[in-house]
Amino acid sequence: MLATNGPAPETGLVTQLRAYLAQAKLPDDGRLPPERELSAALGVSRAELRKALEVLESEGQLWRHVGKGTFIGGRPLDTFADITALARRSNPAEVMRARLAMEPELARTAAFMATPADISEMRLCLTRSRQADTWRQYEGWDTRLHRTIAEATHNSLLLGLFDTLNAVRRAVTWGRLRAIPVKPAPDHHSFEEHERIVDAIEVRDMVGAAAAMRAHLQTVERKLLEKQQQLAEG
User: Whole-model pTM above 0.70?
Assistant: First the structure.
């Protein structure tokens, strides 16, 4: 999480909301349930819920679109039409090349700028991703880890660029890439690769962090292309 000077103590509802969102099965666009449903699920009033949502929005964890709802992550471009237009012109291979161009440098900067709180959040993501019971849960924690690394740059422009790329990634049609098993295997490549990235960031190894992120994304890219080839042949 982004650090602030003298943050106010976190309320129990904000903590409860964080936990709910971490485990919630949200649609692909990251849209939260309507306030009426969310307040009922948490057992609080809508006024109390709005205050908690405002806290997460101020941290860049949520963004709101008038008339459309509240969404996980930072505000990408001005409208979903922008994201949709970018996604139509893109494809998974382009998305991976863009990630390879951006995310190693985010990891490099994070190794210089990360706070202990940032590292703690990364470690939580590592643990929870290993504990995931489904691919959807795993991918939620995977996304959260990569965004936490972007947050750890403490550069609002870099974070905004990452959020835009991530929004396009979510909107691009990837095809049926997940089948069986229902969750990652214990030896899933990302577990150790993610740990190498976080380890390097924690010890301020800027070169190592960039290299570890690049190696990880190259593995993701290779496996994506292999899966697409299998689907084409099948």
Answer: no
